Amino acid sequence: MIFGGIMAVFEGIAALSRDGLFLMTRHYVFRLTLTGWGWIHLILGIILVLAGCAVLSGALWARYFGVAIAGLGAIANFLWLPYYPLWALVLIAVNLFIIWALCTGMQREADTGPVR
User: Fold this and answer.
1) Measured between alpha carbons, how far is 93 from 97 in angstroms, rounded to an integer?
2) What confidence category does residue 109 fall into, taking pLDDT thresholds of 50, 70 and 90?
């Protein structure tokens, strides 16, 4: 989660710096400026890093929160596809892996039951 969050933060910073790296589409359904997308990715990335730190501390609520935030990150990167397709696909895969890992970890904890 921390890695995915850091990558989203870098994506947000790159978009906020108005780098010539990104493709600007004319007729895209979601008309946000590059700065708007940058803030979305930056905020989601920071929240994902904080949730990753909370998961490492062992908080159960952080797993549920991480699944929700990683889901939002995957959706945001799906909407980001026209601007930078390769980076967006990589981050969609990372976010889906985060969701899978968090859900699998919850299943393992439930299977082991309380320790006596």
Assistant:
1) 6
2) low
